[in-house]
Structure formats: structure tokens, C-alpha cells
Amino acid sequence: MQYALAVDIGGTKATVATIDTTFNILARREISTGSALDLESVLEAATNEVIDSTSGELLGVGIGSAGPLDVTAGTISPVNIPSWRPFKVVDFFSALTKSENVVLHGDGMSVADAEHQLGAGRGSKNMLGMVVSTGVGGGLVLNGKLISGESGNVSFFGHHSINHTGITCICGRVGCVEVYASGPSMVRRAHELGWRNDKDDFITLAESARNADPLAIKAIDEGAHALAVGIINVAAIADLELVVIGGGVSQAGDIYWQPLLRHIAAESKDISFLRGLKIKKAELLRDAGLLGAALGVLSPQD
Ligand SMILES: [Zn+2]
After folding, report:
1. What is the model's pTM?
2. Which residues 6+ apart lie within 8 Å of 60 measured at CB?
3. Residue 204 sits in the same domain as residue 88
């Protein structure tokens, strides 16, 4: 049996998995990237565990990482992992697995690839695939092809600004989509509005909104509006037919989707070529990042 090692590096956790050529996940380990421990050692141990528990031939390593990254240098500098500035992730996995075939993509790009080839975007030509959770990311497929860009950072979606006089983002820019539209950003906004709850996460905020708390409803509405502005910016720039949205926030149900769809309709109403723009929920959910990372090896483009 042949398989790929897939590596999905996010802001709060990293997952490594072995995945066969029909996209079955054979073994997986998850580590916290926020831990104070030596991250490289933890990542190495997790990788060795999944490879040791999988028999067959390793075809290569596909990595999807939070950005920014430099595909040419094979390095990543995830915004939420300050100790990696930069981290030579391609060399690291090449040495660890003794494989020359190590493909690095942005995490948004990996998710877009997975949804395009295996999920809600099958058959579409021009789509944005997105993740909205603790961060906001995305990747673009244009003319049926996954776009990488000059350095691999195409559609660094969460960090395009929608308000140049707004809130300063962790990335250093002002008014990024992510500082309004991510789950923690909506919780922060709810606190500013006076919302109080014992638990402090987006799931609780969404529950509160479902129970008709006006402050929770307003915070979610504002976050959904920010995302809608970002989506229509990109949809108009790239003339898209489809946006696929995944990630924890998108799974909150109607309490999030209804305001999001309303704001997308309002933001696009004066752009005639976007009238047919379709918005779909992601199908692959929590495995999209891993499957997309594996696609870098199992279905290489270019
Ligand atoms: Zn930013």
C-alpha cells in the first residue's frame, strides 16, 4: 500500500496523519502548538508514531500550514506561533522521513484544494474555499486550477484589510478580516457590547444568540458582516462562481448562516456579475486540512 504523510499546522494545533491513495486516514496524532514544550520534538514524536503504525510505501509529505509561508524557501512563520520565525518545515520533514517529495501549501489553499477535488466544490471552475474558526483563511481555484502565487500565499484571506482605520491585527496590519470575523473576535466584540457568560468561546456565544440574547446576536451579526465584505471583495476581484465555507464558526448553524447570507446578498447586490454567486457549507469539515495537505502529494498540480 502507498500512502502520504499529511501535516496540518494551524494556530492552536497541528495534526499529522498517514493517508492512503483513496483518501482514507490510516493513523493520526494531534499536538498543541501553543504548548511551552519544544515544538519540534513533539512534532517529530507524533510523526514517527503515525509512520510506525502504518505499513507500506511513503510517497511523500504534504504540508498545509497557517501562513505566512515561503514556498521557495520551504519555511513557515505562522502568525500564532511566535517561536517559528521562520521554521524550515520542508527540510524538517524531509530529514525526518528521508523523503525528497515534500510539498508545502498554505492551510487555506489546502482546504480549498480538498473541497474542490473531494468536497462541496467538485466540478466548480472558479471558487474560494474558506475556513472560519480561531482564524480566517482561504484558498483560490481559478479556471479549475489551485492557485499558489509567487510565494504560496495566494488568498491570504484573513489578513486583507476591510477597515484601514480599524483594529490592529496580530499580524501588524490594521482592520484585517480576521480581527472582526474569527470566532474569538466575535466573542471579544460581544464582551465590548456587555455580553457576559461563564464560558468565553464562540460555541457559547452562538448558544446565547440562539437563546435570543441581543448582544450575542449583534456580535455575530457584525462578525458575519465583516466576513461578507471580505468574501465579496475576493469574489469580485476574481469573478467567482462559488464560495465554500468551513471551520468551527461555520458549523454554528442558522444563527451564523442567516446573517452571513443576508450580508453577502447586500454586499453583492450592486455587482451584476456576482448575482449567481453560490455559497455552500464545506463537506469535509475537520478533515479538510489534512486531506488537502495529502492532495499536495497524492494529486500534484503543475
Ligand atoms: Zn492581520
Report:
1. 0.89
2. 4, 5, 99, 100, 101, 102, 103, 297
3. no
CA–centroid distance, 133 to ligand 1, in Å, is 15
Note whether 190 and 260 are same-domain residues: yes
- 213 is a domain residue: yes
pLDDT digit string (tens) for 59-105? 999 999 988 889 999 999 987 788 888 999 999 999 999 999 999 99
User: Could you tell me the CATH number of the domain that includes residue 39?
Assistant: 3.30.420.40
Verify that 205 and 87 share a domain, yes or no: no
Give the Å distance between the CA of 50 and the centre of ligand 1: 34
Which of helix, strand or coil describes residue 126? coil
Ligand 1: centre distance to CA 262 (Å): 25
Gap from CA of 275 to ligand 1 centroid (Å): 29
Same domain, 255 and 150: yes
Distance from the CA of 185 to the center of ligand 1, in angstroms? 12
Q: Number of helices and strands (H, E) in the chain?
A: 9, 12
Q: Return residues with CB closer than 5 A to ligand 1 (ion).
A: 159, 169, 171, 173, 176
171 lies in the same domain as 277:
yes
Residue 46's domain comprises 2-109+287-298
**Contact criterion met (CB below 8 Å) for 47 and 279:** no
pLDDT digits (tens, 9 = 90+) for 201-260: 999 999 999 999 999 999 999 999 999 999 999 999 999 999 999 988 999 999 999 999
